[in-house]
């Protein structure tokens, strides 16, 4: 059954994973497509010859024939050159992308794929199959440009993974050596204090590296919280302990209030989010002032609050400061630049949204008040 008998179209799903086939079937059938399944490469080729589908979703890793071989074989069959083939794979790397292009792929989707994105990609492929030759030429140009952009994105992800991996080891070594010097009683007090500052900066750099990695994951929709029940008091106390030396060096006092017992969230992500927010507050808090961390219940979850008494954030910048690499420019009425270190606040927003929550900044009258809302069923 092909497009002439079915106005929407027939999609052939070739994947040895039953869960993947079931998800694709449910998603596409909800949009009106007829779905044919094949559990392997050889079966997929037979199904193509029998059903003449309007589009093919093809997995890369399969036990009998891999997706590249299946794609090359289908391209040699009658109707195979015109049928759009969308590779559907968990292998997100440049080498896999390049091999898919060489094999004759029309599109490249990485698992897990959002249902909406899957439907849109299939719709586009099926509609383009029915267009004129002239439109196909325009499409080929756009596809070439899109593929070039996707390849650059994959190269960027590979580079970022290398950078994060290569930076973490020396930074952790710096932290370890600094700890050793801090504990060395034979050193002068001034030398140990300097080693303590080196340790603080090393730990801060390590958090920035992790933020960079997580912001990259968030851009791809791959930042997934690992939920657990966290003691609110322990969480806030640990954040204060982590930043105690920084606060003391700035002559700022840290205080916390926990009006809830537990928080349902990812312990590592939420702790790093709070550390970023408190670090941001410390950078802008006046000397001999107080930075407060609080956790309060709401009607559908909890709210984390970080308050300082610094220059605050202008109303027109209160949404923009959560964008990557954005800072508030210093102005005549606000002599201090307000903002994070490039990715800190962007990371905080990603963590809140990954928990299906939100983050806002308000006038603290004076200063800034950051509110992070997390639902109970995050």
If you had to describe this structure to a student in words, what would you say it looks like?
- This protein has 378 residues and is of the alpha/beta class.
- The protein folds into three domains: 10-130, Response regulator (Rossmann fold); 162-219; 228-375, Heat Shock Protein 90 (2-Layer Sandwich).
- It has helices spanning 18-30, 41-51, 67-75, 94-103, 115-129, 133-182, 189-219, 232-249, 267-284, 344-354; strands at residues 10-14, 34-38, 55-58, 85-89, 107-110, 228-231, 253-258, 262-265, 290-297, 301-307, 327-328, 338-339, 358-363, 368-375.
- The strands form four sheets. The protein has a five-stranded parallel beta sheet with strand order 2-1-3-4-5, sandwiched between helices.
- Helix 6 (133-182) runs antiparallel to helix 7 and helix 8 runs parallel beside helix 9 (267-284).
Summarize the model shown.
Helix content is 49%, strand content 19%. It has 378 residues and is an alpha/beta fold.
Strand content: 15-25%
Order of strands in the sheet with most strands: 2-1-3-4-5
| Average of per-residue pLDDT values | 83
Taking the alpha carbons of the first and last residues, their distance comes to 44 Å
Helix-strand pattern: EHEHEHEHEHHHEHEEHEEEEHEE
Radius of gyration, rounded?
27 Å
CATH superfamily of the largest domain: Histidine kinase-like ATPase, C-terminal domain
CATH topology of the largest domain: Heat Shock Protein 90
| Major sheet details | 5 strands, parallel
* Class per helix and strand makeup: alpha/beta
How many strand units?
A: 14
CATH architecture of the largest domain: 2-Layer Sandwich
Q: Work out the helicity level.
A: 40-55%
Oligomer: single chain
Number of domains: 3
- Identify the CATH class of the largest domain: Alpha Beta
């Amino acid at each position: 059954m092909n497009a002439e008998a079915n106005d929407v179209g027939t999609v052939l799903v070739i994947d040895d994973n039953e869960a993947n086939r079931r998800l694709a079937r449910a998603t596409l059938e909800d949009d009106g497509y007829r779905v044919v399944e094949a559990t392997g490469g050889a079966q997929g080729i037979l199904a193509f010859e029998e059903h003449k589908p309007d589009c093919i979703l093809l997995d890369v890793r399969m036990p009998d024939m891999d997706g590249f071989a299946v794609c090359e074989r289908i391209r040699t069959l009658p109707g195979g050159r015109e049928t759009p083939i969308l590779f559907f794979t968990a292998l997100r790397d440049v080498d896999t992308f390049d091999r898919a292009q060489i094999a004759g792929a029309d599109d490249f989707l990485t698992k897990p794929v959002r249902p909406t994105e899957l439907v849109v990609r299939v719709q586009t492929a099926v509609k383009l199959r029915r267009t004129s030759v002239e439109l196909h030429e325009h499409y080929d140009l756009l596809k070439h440009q899109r593929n070039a952009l996707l390849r650059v994105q994959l190269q960027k992800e590979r580079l970022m993974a290398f950078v994060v991996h290569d930076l973490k080891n020396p930074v952790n070594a710096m932290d370890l050596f600094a700890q050793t010097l801090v504990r060395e009683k034979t050193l002068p007090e001034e030398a140990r204090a300097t080693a303590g500052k080196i340790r603080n900066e090393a730990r801060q750099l390590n958090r920035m590296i992790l933020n960079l990695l997580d912001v990259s994951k968030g851009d791809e929709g791959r930042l997934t919280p690992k939920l657990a029940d966290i003691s609110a008091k322990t969480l806030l106390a640990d954040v204060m302990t982590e930043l105690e030396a920084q606060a003391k060096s700035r002559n700022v006092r840290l205080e916390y209030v926990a009006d809830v017992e537990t928080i349902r969230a990812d312990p590592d992500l939420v702790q790093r989010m709070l550390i970023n927010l408190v670090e941001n507050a410390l950078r802008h808090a006046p000397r001999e002032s107080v930075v407060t961390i609080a956790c309060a219940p709401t009607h559908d979850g909890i709210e984390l609050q970080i308050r300082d008494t610094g220059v605050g954030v202008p109303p027109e910048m209160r949404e923009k400061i959560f964008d990557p690499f954005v800072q508030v420019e210093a102005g005549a009425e606000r002599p201090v630049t307000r903002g994070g270190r490039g990715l800190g606040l962007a990371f905080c927003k990603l963590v809140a949204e990954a928990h299906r929550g939100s983050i806002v900044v308000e006038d603290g009258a004076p200063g800034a008040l950051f509110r992070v809302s997390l639902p109970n069923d995050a």
